[in-house]
Amino acid sequence: MFLCNARRAVVLAVVFLAACSTQPNKPAPQPVKDGGPPVPVDMLATPEPTPVREPVGVAGNKSPYVVGGVTYHVRTGAKGYRARGRASWYGTKFHGKRTANGEVYNMYAMSAAHKTLPLPSYAKVTNLENGRSVIVRVNDRGPFVAGRIIDLSYTAAQKLGYLDKGTAQVEVVALDPDTLPTAGQTLAVEKDASARQALQQDASFKLPANTYLQVGAFSSASKAKQVRGKVAAELDYPVSVSPVERGGKTLYRVRIGPISQQRVLVTLRESVQQKHLGQPQVVYD
């Protein structure tokens, strides 16, 4: 009986293996490749972002952090940073996805990713192979490839002339935030219609459609309405009270927005802080 059972088991195993061998091989999933748009877009006329003094946020600035077994320490400030190395660029694979600081990556904007510069910050990048320079706004982390020091957007790489090559030897110099004007100051001097239109069209400053500046969350609806009234009286921007359930309790959030432009967000945050109206936090809802 044992031999019969053993023989039967062997036969079944052979049949099973034969059946497996006749199954069609499933193709292995192919990694999503990065690159530019299917039809190249001429972005050489894209204006560079106007550097402004922006507060360093919490998002994207955790330090230290680990990627691929390597530990990185975010700089406490951008002032004094200067480095030379290889620059790469990233495009369609990440277009429309969140950057490290919570914004939305737009490969047509003048932006960049860096491993250790605080987010956001601004830097001048010079292609040492042709002498071209651009100003970019750093709002993402990367590139996590040995020997590369910065990852530029599709547009920034095009303006530096290395789209086809993929990488270039560059020098990166961070702009000192203390030498930059505040967002409020730059908006104040942009009075003519053409300047305002250029600002609205500048993709470097566009925010997700659901961006708000939250100044507080309260357990009391009346308290929230009181704070909303104070904030609305000081700011020429929509302010609302939005209830939300948290742990079985209702919180009443006082929020400014929605806000579509990064520089408007910075200006509003500065105003809230200067007028002691609350602890502003950027939220997405």
Description:
By secondary structure, the chain is an alpha+beta fold. Among the domains are: 65-179, RlpA-like domain (Barwin-like endoglucanases, Beta Barrel); 207-284, Sporulation related repeat (Alpha-Beta Plaits), CATH 3.30.70.1070. 25% of the residues lie in helices and 26% in strands. The chain has a six-stranded mixed barrel. The chain has a four-stranded antiparallel sheet with strand order 10-11-9-12, with helices on one face. A hairpin with a 2-residue loop joins β1 and β2 (70-72). It is elongated. 31% of the residues are buried. Mean pLDDT is 83; it is low at 1-23.
Helix/strand class: alpha+beta
Q: What average pLDDT do the residues reach? A: 83
What does the radius of gyration come to? Answer: 26 Å
Order of helices and strands: HEEEEEEEHEHHEHEEHE
**Approximately how much beta-strand content do the residues carry?**
25-35%
Strand order of the largest sheet: 3-7-4-6-5-8
How is the biggest beta sheet arranged? 6 strands, mixed, barrel
CATH homologous group name of the domain at 65-179? RlpA-like domain
The CATH class name of the domain at 65-179 reads: Mainly Beta
Span from first to last CA? 69 Å
Helix proportion range: 10-25%
What is the tally of beta strands?
Answer: 12
- How many helix segments? 6
CATH architecture of the domain at 65-179: Beta Barrel
Shape: elongated
Q: Low-confidence stretches at least 5 residues in length (pLDDT < 50)?
A: 1-23
Under CATH, the topology of the domain at 65-179 can be stated as Barwin-like endoglucanases
